[in-house]
Design brief:
Elements lengths: L1 H16 L4 H17 L6 H20 L10
């Protein structure tokens, strides 16, 4: 779920803004949500590690998906 949230949300953000860096805003918001979920202590260690890696990979892949032409931000 975290991977798909970052992938689809990041792709949608790029389509709206035409800037690649917006995918990292989506990934950061997913990671912040995970951090607060981890404070509850309900997850095993492997889920916590996968939960950190999944949104990062999802955001990176969202930048690679075809769609609107992208501008490189300075």
């Amino acid at each position: 779920g975290w991977f798909i949230a970052a992938l689809v949300g990041g792709w949608f953000a790029v389509q709206l803004s035409a800037r690649n860096w917006t995918t990292w805003l989506v990934a950061a918001s997913v990671l912040v949500g995970q951090f607060f979920d981890y404070l509850l202590g309900r997850h095993p260690a492997w889920v916590m590690i996968a939960g950190i890696i999944a949104p990062i990979v999802g955001a990176w892949l969202a930048q690679k998906l075809p769609g609107r032409s992208r501008r490189v931000s300075a």
